[in-house]
Amino acid sequence: MKLNIALLAGDGIGPEVIDQAVKVSNAVAAKFNHEINWTPALTGAAAIDSVGEPYPDETHAICEAADAVLFGAIGHPRFDNDPSAKVRPEQGLLKMRKKLGLFANVRPTFTFPSLIDKSPLKRERIEGTDLIILRELTGGVYFGERGRKDNGNTAFDTMTYTRAEIQRLAKKGFEMAMTRSKRLCCVDKANVLESSRLWRETVQAMEKDYPEVEVSYEFVDAVAMRLVQWPSDYDVIITENLFGDILTDEASVISGSMGLMPSASVGEKARLYEPIHGSYPQAAGKDIANPLATVLSAAMLFEDFDLKNEAEAIRTVVNKSLAEGVVTEDLSEGGTAYKTSEVGDWLAKNL
Ligand code: IPM
Ligand code: MG
Predict the structure, then answer these.
(1) Which residues have CB under 6 Å of ligand 1?
(2) Tens of pLDDT along 71-91?
């Protein structure tokens, strides 16, 4: 297969972890006879610095023309503590999601046998955890009307959803549940929020189309608690944008390191793959960040193009690196800490 992939390294550790995913993907392509054309493009603070815009039109054109996008991270501390900044790197991320129509964000949480004791949770709580949070990504409070009134002394952000937006996300959730254990949990705050009541009403109306799927409805505050108590109770979770943002960070630590979890964002046409961690500016340029979340995001990319053996090959070699202790400092616990680039080299070589 011939794949054209837009490469958006972004900020902080983005470029370093992306380099490793490229190495590993190229090794997979060589092994299975595929051809990958990478087209780098600017995004985030790096793009603001060079063209004054965190998601330039040229980058959008490259993403639209590509079969998929591989994305690193976005964000820079010099913007974080400056509420008056007019352009922010994160605006680029939101604009990219919206313009590419990436309405469904797939964030899996699973455990690695060799890392079970690295989790902050007890072994017996997390063994067998294998869940997917399907987060709505282009609606809700992230994109609703916002502003100030009352001379700037009152601020508001609006959580708005249309039935159609909920349906297209829920449809993906039902379909995903059908390929897994046929359990779907809709997470909302329907005891308080009108938008959540529309979520519940919409998902309930869809149940008849998927008679085999067992659907449960839970409030987000309760799920925040239950997720760390009994993560293996969950399989596919669907939820709105902000709840999904919070729950996926929470879920990511179950595996032992945030540096391990990949994600995919998909729309009607576009597909984007990225680690769920952020730009980790403290580590930028030091060659110490864990590249595995990005490498595993590349595995999700191959899988979505129906290249299952290729995806499996990546997961197998990642498991092997973990079992053999070829890990970055977040996982080395006093043992040898490998550099980001060394982990990437090792993975590519061992493929
Ligand atoms: C994420 C991030 C983003 C979000 C930020 C960087 C805007 O936290 O992808 O989860 O809130 O969606
Ligand atoms: Mg987040």
Answers:
(1) 75, 90, 93, 245
(2) 999 999 988 888 788 899 999
